[in-house]
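User: My advisor, Dr. K., asked me to get a structural model of this assembly before our group meeting. I'm new to this, so sorry if the format is off. These are the inputs:
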Amino acid sequence: MNTKDFNITEEQKALVLARLKTLNPESKITLGDHEEISVRKIIKHVEEGDDFGKKIVKVQIRMLQVLAGV
Amino acid sequence: MVKRLVVTRPQYDLATHYLHDFSKEIITTIRSAKDIHATNLEGSKAVRKNLENTLIKEKPGLVFLNGHGDKKEVKGHKGEVILDKFNIELTKDKIVYALSCDSLEELGKLAIKKGTKSYIGYRARFMIVRDPSREGAPSKDKNALPFKRACAMMINALVFGNTVSRSIDLTKKEYLHSIRSYGTSEDDPFGDTPLIRLALAWDLEFLDMEGDPNASF
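Assistant: The format is fine. Below is the predicted structure of the whole assembly, which you can bring to the meeting.
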């Protein structure tokens, strides 16, 4: 997914941040290359709007669409 | 006619222990199939020399790589680079499934230019969510189970003759099923469901292929 191909609205970003902030900030996702990333760091990426953060927003929105049956 | 595949299964750190476990079932399944032969490059055998020798001598139709990776390479035992631009031509006329981070982005594209039929992989880092209390036993880690099921779906679909396109579709459906269904109190005692769903949605998004979608093993 190329993050240049989509625009993230402020509403989407706010929604994803609100959901992420309900999680334990120390919970972690394992990335393949020996690295773990905490919810706290994921939130920081989203807030800063970097490439990883934009991808997180996009993926979370898609996930919500799946759960909503859209 | 016996169909041949080669599987690399390093097992030297936490991530590769999980991937090693993910591929255990398919090895068992293939052992009971008379018309399929798997060369299992496991643990310290998952090195460049062994992969190259197997590709040259056995000419497997399917190459299943498990391990660390980046945009330019896939790694084996203790991080040894086992597939990169210098030997990618050895996968000519083969289907490659790389369960590793990022490699589809550049190595996958290069592979197709060099004659690989299809290259399946991830366009970003592969995510899983672990239960830290189960690190010593990935097979008992319930958090990892939906990721394992999706990975198993892909290799099973490929091994039993589905096209690359169909195998990806089946795997994406498995990811979708897990996103929708995961999260009862029984399978999520620690409240990890939202994070697991996020990681599943990430892997769903970035699983993709280069090359011929109609290729089959």
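One thing worth pointing out at the meeting: The radius of gyration of chain A is 12 Å.

User: Perfect, thanks a lot.
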